[in-house]
Amino acid sequence: MDAAPQGHVTALDKTAHFVDAARARxxxxxxxTLLRADMAAIxxxxxxxxxxxxxxxxxxxxxxxAWRRALRPGGMIAFSEVCWFTGNPxxxxxxxxxxxxxxxxxxxxxxxxxxxxxxxxxxxxxxDAAWESYYTPLDAxxxxxxxxxxxxxxAVLDAAQEExxxxxxxxxxxxxxxxxxxxxxxxGSAGR
Length: 192
Fold this sequence. Notes:
It contains 6 helices and 7 strands. It is α/β, with parallel strands linked by helices. It has a domain at 38-126 and 171-183: Vaccinia Virus protein VP39 (Rossmann fold, 3-Layer(aba) Sandwich). Helix 5 runs antiparallel to helix 6. It starts with 8 loop residues before the first strand and ends in a 9-residue tail after the last strand. The model has no long low-confidence stretch (mean pLDDT 93). Residues 5-75 form the Methyltransferase domain.
């Protein structure tokens, strides 16, 4: 909010406790609206849509296609999507990501962006510092939950721990690509 003090942020999530936690943090800020809603059905119009690490729920092309009607003229979308940085990933990384068969490389993401009728303005890889900002607190939470965890929770904790360990060991193979995109004008339209 510091970068755009006159701006307004509308944030949404389908999970009630995430929305409740965010509302508790931002309840006194009139520049923030928090909604329990589905990102697949955005009904308002925005200048900018940001989706960090969740576009895979819909697919890149599908998300951009759905969100086009929610963008004001001149609007843009930024999203991050996990992708391969090599054509020959380690067996461990390949095994870990077999759960996401749609995973592709930067060119594949660009093709999905184009298929939705958008152009890519810029891309960059998510930094190691950003990954560690996510995994370091996660490591602590896993450690705090591990004692006394039942089998179901232990399985979730093991999967989260393996995800972090896999990235730390093979960060050159995969990561998140942040893309900034905007819709191309449709034939016969004025920029939407």
